[in-house]
Amino acid sequence: MVTLGLSRLKPASPSVEKSSVLVDTVKRGSMLREVRGNGTLVPEEIIWITATTPGRVERILLLPGVIVKSDTLLVEMANPELVQLAFEAESAVQSGEAQMEKLKVQLESEQLTQQATIATLKSDLTTASIEAEIDQKLLALGLIPELAAKKSHAHAEELASRHELEKHRLEISAKSAAAQIVVQEAELSKLRKQYQLKQQQVAALQVKAGFAGVLQRIGDITPLQQGQQLLAGANIARIANPSKLKAEIKIAETQAKDVQHGQMVSIDTRNGLIAGHVVRIDPAVVNGTVTVDVALDGALPKGARPDLSVDGTITLEKLENILYVGRPVNGQSESKVSLFKLVEAGQAAVRIPVQLGRSSVGSIEIINGLQEGDQMILSDMSQWDSHDRVRLN
């Protein structure tokens, strides 16, 4: 009988130091739903200075961290071939201008020759007209034969026709001259633009900031080195405006589903808090997190600068008149879990099923299984999964 009785006894409950577990009390009231993530401050305005032409780095004048203006010289580059091309383009412009002057003089000379021809014909036409008129009067008096009068009249008509033709030729010549001038001007304009482009490319070898801000980087992935050969389009420097920053916060993908545009955010720079709001949510998930861009509404605290590590807390919503408790280690939103509830005035704890609802950073909603005032163990109790009761010492 003693053996039978001992066999029916339940195993003794394991003991747990009460000071080693975290205990919280179920409350009823308002709960702020929040999600938290870490990230960095990044500039809203960033400009990459790129090489417009290939060249070799001759001198690096500044290092990252200095404040620059738009006309601050950063890097000096060299490209002898480009300088030679600019010289050739300048010579082509000078040659084109000389050709233009030569063409103008030639066309003007041709027009003067044509005008002189017209003047000569006009004089001959006047003389022939007078002779024809005299011959016509002499014919009427019977002093000359009719054939002579007709001959002089025909000569006058011939000169009149030639005079009209030469006048028409002068008009055509003027139009032709204008067209030739237009063609030559277009060619000269093309040469000037090519020369201007080469001048700009040579000037671009003196790399300037072009933007007021802080020089963040010289080079792209690796720092720029003196003597390095760069191709056109290579990144030379990065400049940012330090007065306009935003926060990029990484939120776990399981918590990011409730993040919406316009929600309020508190950014902790470890030197002060800045209020902000959500302006962009990255649609892609990278390494289990979603990037959320936060516009900063408040003034930047001292020490705030690009790439500064920060923590961000996003307020999702405020829940009214609900049961909630501190978030257990294994407590996920909208799930059913087993938690240890304190009994016997805190001397023991028993396992009970609890239905959880919406969660926040440090608290979670209780749907079923607990009442207001109940005390729960929030710590990890996985090592006691085989026990439904523990003693608290």
Relevant terms:
393 residues; alpha+beta; 3 domains; six-stranded antiparallel β-barrel; four-stranded antiparallel sheet; 3 helices; 32% helix
Share of residues in helices: 25-40%
Strand content of the residues, in percent?
Answer: 35-45%
User: What is the distance, rounded to the nearest whole angstrom, between the alpha carbons of the first and last residues?
Assistant: 34 Å
Largest sheet: 6 strands, antiparallel, barrel
Number of helices: 3
Lateral strand order in the biggest sheet: 3-12-15-14-13-16
| Number of beta strands | 21
Described by the principal axes of the CA atoms, the overall outline is rod-shaped
User: Which sequence of SSEs, written as H and E, runs from N to C?
Assistant: HEEEEEEEHHEEEEEEEEEEEEEE
- The radius of gyration over CA amounts to 48 Å
CATH class of the largest domain: Mainly Beta
Structural class: alpha+beta
- CATH topology group of the largest domain: Elongation Factor Tu (Ef-tu), domain 3
Overall CATH architecture of the largest domain: Beta Barrel
Low-confidence stretches: none
Number of domains: 3
